[in-house]
Amino acid sequence: MDSTPMPEPLRRAIHQLVSEAVQNCQEVLRYTEPDQAHTWKRMTLYRSTDAADTMNMLAMLIAAYSQRTGTSKNALEAYLQLFQQRDRAAGPSDGEWAHLAGLLGEEAPASAGEARSWPSMQFHDGRTHAEYAQQPEDDPQKLFTEACLHGLKARLCEDVDSLDSYLPPQMAAMARKVAEALEVPELATT
Description:
The chain is mainly alpha-helical and 190 residues long. It has 8 helices and no strands. The longest helix is centred in the first third of the chain and has 29 residues.
């Protein structure tokens, strides 16, 4: 196993790309809020695909470096998990249609009829997500993650007050605390 540290320019590029992807993910969350009813479809798709493309670029940079430094093709394919790769140009698969049906409380599509098939598993995952959406308390880790993303974006945009205009009160309060914690303290002059 190679124990050479990551080159500094690659490390910095990865940090930049992760930051860009996180900002796009935060915007996905932002466009799910009720005040974005007129643009949510377009903007959530734009920002989620921007995030996916950014993370894909990051993976390909690491893959290129790994290949240049001697990682075998078989190992690289395993690391890249090519079996999971999906082409967005193909549009939603039977699995996504089944998941959506489960989310919306509809009957399972014919493609989900075979037990243990991918569409069947996705249909049941959709039902589970729909049940979780009905519960009054959200998962604390999910709430914390969302609050961090909203607070970070509000701090970067210098618009902390806007949090109250589109977030539920509990989320806005948590995001405000995150944004306040991110304030750069004034340096004391001596």
